[in-house]
């Protein structure tokens, strides 16, 4: 009725599309999963200014406070003055600048101590990096073993790769071993896991996963989005806590979280990097990262390699937050999940915290599984002990005591 027939084909009119999409949006709203954009009126650092209100921000991934660091800003400004605002083309056309190469070399130094057999490759985001890795390394002959709580970018990489994807229970080595045993026939096997789980803040049992990989002839792809700048000596990551060079592991990390910039990288044996350059479509078919974020990330890496102070400051605040919220004293990551379950309860708790002066975003499906909605508090090196004590008190006051106990399960 609302459609027009043109040469025998049926064309959907705008009003028909509007009706259909409005129904889909209504369903999202009815499920309590409505999302909307709320622009900040100042850099979202320790304070978050939005719609004329000002909150103390406990939702940022800027774990070291580097996104507003004077040295990163100066580096980005100098790079823009020297190199311009854009890279002008993809990396393989004429978009590879000396700056990209410098950052890639610095990342090899940072992540694997400059090991001569290793190289790094930049990507425009962690999302691009994960799609690149999984699609370049696997196809229909291969099997990917994927942790049940892996990030959407890893899930999408699995889908796009055409490999058989076998999901194992979160951080469950017995389940992983059983599944590796069952899929013995593949050409190539990849175990894919986050280092620090983005919505849960727990850490993958990497040493044991790597041993399993070696036993079964598999490779590990480790996503260090929330581990880079956070875990390991000088924030070099979870893998850097092990002696992992020469072992079957490929490390990916991002520049947009603790490193305060934008983009991502893979550090891996040189042959893996060559394959990515030659095959990874999200690397090949996109304009290279512009000079400013590359220079800012390079400055961030230099800062971390010069001094432990920032990472130590972060860990000091992680301890304060763990104590104040009643988490385990050996909690080592800046991500604190407080699980409420349902959408409505979570969004109400978020509003109550806003009324108390804190910005803590509620997390709902599909970011977390249905029934596992939560407040996700993140602490940074830039918070003060008083701010941490205050937000923890506010969380305790808006939460039923029982849910806080459940929240601290792991
Ligand atoms: C944020 C995130 C990504 C994506 O990185 P971007 O650079 O933001 O695209 C990938 N993996 C994990 C685990 C993340 O948390």
TrEMBL record:
Family classification: Belongs to the class-II pyridoxal-phosphate-dependent aminotransferase family. BioF subfamily.
Function: Catalyzes the decarboxylative condensation of pimeloyl-[acyl-carrier protein] and L-alanine to produce 8-amino-7-oxononanoate (AON), [acyl-carrier protein], and carbon dioxide.
Protein name, as recorded: 8-amino-7-ketopelargonate synthase
Enzyme Commission number, as recorded: 2.3.1.47
Name of the coding gene: bioF
Named cofactor requirement(s): pyridoxal 5'-phosphate
Pathway annotation from the record: Cofactor biosynthesis; biotin biosynthesis
Top-level taxon of the source organism: Bacteria
Residue ranges of domain Aminotransferase class I/classII large in the record: 55-394
InterPro entries: Aminotrans_II_pyridoxalP_BS, Aminotransferase_I/II_large, AON_synthase_class-II, AONS_Archaea/Proteobacteria, PyrdxlP-dep_Trfase, PyrdxlP-dep_Trfase_major, PyrdxlP-dep_Trfase_small
Source taxonomy: Bacteria, Pseudomonadati, Acidobacteriota, Terriglobia, Terriglobales
Molecular function, one GO term: 8-amino-7-oxononanoate synthase activity
Keywords noted in UniProt: Acyltransferase, Biotin biosynthesis, Pyridoxal phosphate, Transferase
Catalytic function, reaction form: 6-carboxyhexanoyl-[ACP] + L-alanine + H(+) = (8S)-8-amino-7-oxononanoate + holo-[ACP] + CO2
Organism of provenance: Chloracidobacterium sp. N
Transmembrane segments: none
Subunit structure: Homodimer.
């Amino acid at each position: 009725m609302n459609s027009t027939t043109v040469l025998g084909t049926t064309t959907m009119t705008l009003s028909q599309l509007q009706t259909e999409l409005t129904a889909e949006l209504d369903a999202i709203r009815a499920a309590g999963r409505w999302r909307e954009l709320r622009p900040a009126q100042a850099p979202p650092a320790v304070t978050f200014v939005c719609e004329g209100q000002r909150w103390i921000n406990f939702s940022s991934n800027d774990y070291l406070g580097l996104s507003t660091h004077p040295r990163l800003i100066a580096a980005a400004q100098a790079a823009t003055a020297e190199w311009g605002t854009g890279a002008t083309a993809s990396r393989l056309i004429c978009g590879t600048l000396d700056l990209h190469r410098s950052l890639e070399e610095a990342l090899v130094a940072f992540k694997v101590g400059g090991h001569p057999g290793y190289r790094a490759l930049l990507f425009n985001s962690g999302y691009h990096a994960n799609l690149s890795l999984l699609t370049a390394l696997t196809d229909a002959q291969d099997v990917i073993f994927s942790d049940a709580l892996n990030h959407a970018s890893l899930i999408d990489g699995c889908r796009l790769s055409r490999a058989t994807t076998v999901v194992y229970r979160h951080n469950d080595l017995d389940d992983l071993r059983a599944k590796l045993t069952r899929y013995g026939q593949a050409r190539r096997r990849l175990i894919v896991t986050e280092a620090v789980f983005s919505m849960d803040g727990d850490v993958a049992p990497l040493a044991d996963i790597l041993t399993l990989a070696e036993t079964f002839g598999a490779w590990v792809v480790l996503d260090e989005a929330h581990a880079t700048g956070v875990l390991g000596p000088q924030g070099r990551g979870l893998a850097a806590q092990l002696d992992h060079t020469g072992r079957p592991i490929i490390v990916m990390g991002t520049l947009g979280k603790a490193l305060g910039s934008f983009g991502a990288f893979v550090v891996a044996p040189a042959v893996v990097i060559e394959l990515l350059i030659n095959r990874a479509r999200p690397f090949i078919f996109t304009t290279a990262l512009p000079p400013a974020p590359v220079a800012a990330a390079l400055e961030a890496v230099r800062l971390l390699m010069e001094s432990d102070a920032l990472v130590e400051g972060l860990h000091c605040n992680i301890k304060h937050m763990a104590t104040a919220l009643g988490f385990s004293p050996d909690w080592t990551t800046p991500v604190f999940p407080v699980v409420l379950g349902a959408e409505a309860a979570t969004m109400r708790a978020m509003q109550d915290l806003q009324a108390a002066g804190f910005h803590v975003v509620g997390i709902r499906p599909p970011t977390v599984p249905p029934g596992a909605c939560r407040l996700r508090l993140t602490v940074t090196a830039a918070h003060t002990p008083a701010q941490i004590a205050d937000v923890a008190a506010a969380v305790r006051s808006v939460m039923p005591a029982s849910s806080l106990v459940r929240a601290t399960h792991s």
